[in-house]
Amino acid sequence: MNRKYYLLILLSIFIIFVAGCKAASNTSGYAPASSAEVKEFNTAIQNFQYNPQSINVNFGDTVRINIKNNDGVTHGISLPVFGVREFVRPGQTTTIQFVANQKGNPETFCSTDHGEKLLINVI
After folding, report:
1. Which of 28, 42, 84, 123 has the fewest CB atoms inside 10 Å of its own CB, making it the most exposed?
2. Do residues 41 and 53 touch, judged by C-beta distance below 8 A?
3. Which class for 69: exposed (0-12), middle (13-18), buried (19 or more C-beta within 10 A)?
4. Positive/negative CA dihedral, 8, 9, 12, 18
């Protein structure tokens, strides 16, 4: 056989091997965002409490939460497990978005030490 054919065969085998390794490496439980609809929720902070105080989402959902601040102080929105850290100023609405790729009950808490928490149930 010609040297070009050997190289072509080796290159094809390498590409197939790399593609197989990438597919096998996605075993961490991470669910990538799909083309499915975004699950959207509205919540408000008033008197240093979220209303509602919890939301339920499915594992793998893309979640969008619109947070309205009805208090007279700035609140810090922190959800470290999903890489969220934002602020919502008095009278304004801040939107956070993430993929619910870890099961459990992570809490969104105020990073300015106010104490309010929003429980996100990932089932």
Report:
1. 28
2. no
3. buried
4. negative
Q: Count CB neighbours of 104 within 10 A.
A: 12
For 95, how many CA atoms within 13 A lie in the half-sphere containing its CB? Answer: 8
Q: Residue 26 — very low, low, confident or very high, per pLDDT cuts 50/70/90?
A: very low
Dig out the tokens for 95 from the structure: 């939107």
Which of the four pLDDT bands, split at 50, 70 and 90, describes residue 113? confident
The pLDDT assigned to 31 comes to 44
List of residues 6+ apart from 107 with CB closer than 8 A: 79, 117, 118, 119, 120
Kindly report the pTM of this predicted structure: 0.66
- Which of 86, 93, 51, 89 lies closest to 72, judged by CA? 89
Which residue shows structure tokens 């893309």? 62
